[in-house]
Amino acid sequence: MSRREGSLEAPQADSSVSLLPHLEAKIRQTHSLAHLLTKYAEQLLQEYVQLQGDPFGLPGFSPPRLPVAGLSAPAPSHAGLPVHERLRLDAAALAALPPLLDAVRRRQAELNPRAPRLLRRLEDAARQARALGAAVEALLAALGAANRGPRAEPPAAAAAATSASAASGVFPAKVLGLRVCGLYREWLSRTEGDLGQLLPGGPA
Amino acid sequence: MALFEVFQTTFFLTLLSLRTYQSEVLAERVPLTPVSLKVSTNSARQSLHLQWTVQNLPYHQELKMVFQIQISRIETSNVIWVGNYSTTVKWNQVLHWSWESELPLECATHFVRIKSVVDDARFPEPNFWSNWSSWEEVSGKETSTERLKKPCKVTTPLSVQDSLGQDILFVFPKDKLVEEGANVTICYISRNIQNNVSCYWEGKQIYGEQLDPHVSVFHLSSVPFIRKTGADMYCEVSQGNVSTSIKGIVLFVSKVLEEPKDFSCETRDFKTLHCTWDPGVDTALGWSKQPSQSYTLFESFSGEKKLCTHQNWCNWQITQDSQETYNFTLIAENYLRKRSVNILFNLTHQVYPMNPFSVNFENVNATNAIMTWKVYSVKNNFTYLCQIEVYCEGKMKQQYNVSIKMNGEYFLSDLEPFTEYMARVRCAGASHFWKWSQWSGQNFTTLEAAPSEAPDVWRNVNSEPGSHIVTLFWKPLSKLHANGKILFYNVVVENLDKPSKSELHSVPAPAKSTKLTLDRHSYEIWVTANNSVGASPASIIVISADPENQEVEEERIADTEGRFSLSWKPQPGDVVGYVVDWCDHPQYTLCDLQWKNVGPNATSTVISTDAFRPGVRYNFRIYGLSTKRIACLLEKKTGYSQELAPSDNPHMLVDKLTSHSFTLSWKYYSTESQPGFIQGYHVYLKSKARQCHPRFERAVLTDGSECCKYKIDNPEEKALIVDNLKPKSVYEIFVTPFTSAGEGPNATFTKVTTPDEHSSMLIYILLPMSFCVLLIMIGCYLKSQWIKETCYPDIPDPYKSSILSLIKFKEKPHLTIMNVSDCIPDAIEVVSKPEGTKIQFRKSLTETELTKPNYLYLLPTEKNHSGPVPFICFENLTYNQATSDSGSCGHVPVPMKPPPSQLGLMISPENVKKALGKNYMNSLGEISAGGTNLNYVSQLASPMSGDKDSLPTNPVEPSNCSEYKRQMAVPLCLASPPLTENSSLSSITLLNPGEHYR
């Protein structure tokens, strides 16, 4: 039995057959949104890097993947989890990202006040992450697999931690912004992949 | 004794005071030691701030003291700086002193101690230093601002890394702000000396010096400005290729604050001073590290100060009317530097007037006008210097300066009539020039005046029998001389040979020519241009009674870069000048005659115009103008501004073709209408022969093929005999003209084939034969009447028959033709209708002699008849005899047989009618309605005259009854038996429908 089948077994049993097309459309729609946002996140990361100056724009520059308060990086074991569990993690990460992105935008507004496009992208990213997170939550609810696990750290606390970290200096704030943008892209990509597994004909 | 007591008392008092002073000095001798030393740090400025007091200082006493300060780094023995600080110390005063470190204070622990000495003139030497204060330690970790350190008694200092917490790497200073060109020292502190730490400055790795095993220092010299968001310096700890920790700082490098340039202040209304300057570069940095520099205005006389809200200008309100002099200081300031500039000025010297207004023009006439304007009154008795400029067509014509108080006025003269001008004015302070106001202007137009110059007139004379057709041309007057809009031209013609009234011709503008027809007298013509004010001076030209000399030979001239240089021989006698005329467009009927007037002493001129086009032949005529204003044609010139190759090739004719030669001609080729002077012709000849004919030379064509070429240098030689040819050979020939620019266009060769030599023999034979035939034909034509009468005589006209005269006399004078009843028929020839075609029938005619006709004999008196088919008997139709009138018609009871079906159409009444309709209308009226197709028997058996081919070869002999053989119409039904192909008839013709008979 494939992983996908296994993950959908319980929800399908409860769902009405007539609702399946609607659910499939919803999955497809959410997957498309995740795909689109992944592309946007890629552009955001590129623009962020360009505006920070060297060494951020240099190819060899790869700062350590420092932990961000309130937001964990996608774990390597993520792929081994059932799909609904993965989606729960995705939704939690997407819920934690908006305040972090807002904090990054505020810092960049100080550092790069004449970069309106980056600031707009960051603002959009926070809003879009929130929207996608809600869509995934709704999907989980429709599948009968609503988030029952421990909630992520409250967004406000995460943002406060981010701000405190950024206050220690400009360079750490830049690195933190880079990390947040990178995590945003990773979680979107991961969400897109997880949603793709729910689609008919998706990878097993 | 008293004196002794006074001396003793004085001595003791002196001793007492001395003791008192000595006791004070002794008190000073007690060391004045600095106490309560406190050290604080300013991390951003990397400075140590010391504060202390002096112990044992007398109450309310001031002493000048010197303090020596010693600073060590890492350990007390490592003294890195020693210096003295001199100041006057009051009782109970807290002293402050700062020291700035080039090394971030966080990078190492610092130690400070201080000692002092009295350096006051009131206390003579020897002075001695106090003891050192105890060392004050400033730990790297504890370099937070405004935090005071307590004295540390520990001689072994606390290491920096011990005080930094749990992080493994630190970089200092944090986000430092420096000016461009500064030297910056940066350090990193690594907790573990085993760590592999690499540091980078703007992406490039840098290497520093090790301060201790945990601390390394980097010196960046003369840092440049990189970007407003700062430049990154970071260090990373890596294990293998993996970065485990990264720490960095952003160094904010500010541009150096510049001194404001071009600082000045001015007033327009004596109420506000407007000060401006050039701020130079903006030193603002990102992350709010440094805002843009601020500007402050300070006026020293009033002591007032104003913080400017703009970067390059500031307004200052003038509050005191009495203040005339101002001393301004402009202070530019940022976090790192302060700059200032100063100006001192008198207010009345810095006046930038408001723009003049109400600019008007009064009393405008043809050549002058009065200009008025106003200025704002800003101060009593303030005098303005105003500048006036007058423009015409965008060019400045006049400029004036005038001093005014409030209302300005200036008389503008020397203006051109009927011209639009633009006059403008600006003003400045007259007493001290500071700055002109903006211009205020207005347009005006002067009035018209009479044209000031006679029009330039020329003429073209065409002589006709008894008259001269004179076309007068004139050039429009320039705007300068027209002085208004030219409305018409007056042409006055006066006969010089006989007194007569002058003729006036008025030609409305904008015509530029008029045509006059004059008789063969001398005429003087006056031409004036007129506008609404008056007439111009007259231009006079005289037309001589003698026709113009056309015998002047035309001379060719060469072009020189689109210009023609013309020269001529001076005209004998007095001349007032020369005129050269030509057509700009000679190829058109309206050739646009142009002329140029040349002075009397000139014998050459250059004609240059944009109208000249390559490949067009221009003809120039040079006239001399006599004192009587009579023009005499002197010379003719012709030339091209640029010669081109001929545009077409001549149409050649090949003539006199023999087996060995032929003549080539192109006599209709015009050499005059070509785009260059035709210099000759090239004749190209192609043949199979490899060798060129004599006079021809070998040439290679543009397509690479070879041929023979013959050059004709005379353009009028338009024929060439090509000889020495081979009989019965094909030659290809091509003629093209050439000019100095080249040959004519490529075209196809014309093939000429020389005839065989023997073919000429045939001509000698055929020609006489043709001549003989011709002679015979002419002879036949001349003797045609004879031949006709001999071979095919005309059918006699019955109206002209002599028999008629006899009949008229006897019985029926109304009859015009002979009646059948007048004749006694001797026989009726019964014919049978053939079924074959006409051709077949005609064929049968040829067999007439072999077939014997059937004859039906009739009674000459029989009139009535009975039977189903009317039987019509009539005479030859040529006689126009109606059968109904014939009293001699008889009926033959011949049994009816239906006609062949194929002929059904033909037997219908309509067909019959058609058959007879055209030529026998008169007869038809007399034929009964049931008439059918007819056969008749010609007396002369003359068939259709229009069909000579069918002429019978054996004509029938005339009968004895009369001159003519009697003929009758026979219905087809009587054709019994039907004609077969073998049937033959003599002198019988079948009239088919539609067949004409004459």
TrEMBL record, chain A:
Subcellular location(s) per record: Secreted
InterPro entries documented for this protein: 4_helix_cytokine-like_core, PRF/CT
UniProt keyword terms in alphabetical order: Cytokine, Secreted
Signal peptide start-end: none
GO cellular component, one term: extracellular space
One BP annotation, GO: cell surface receptor signaling pathway
Primary localization class, coarse: secreted
Molecular function per GO: cytokine activity
Family recorded in the similarity comment: Belongs to the IL-6 superfamily.
UniProt function note: Induces cardiac myocyte hypertrophy in vitro. Binds to and activates the ILST/gp130 receptor.
Name of protein: Cardiotrophin-1
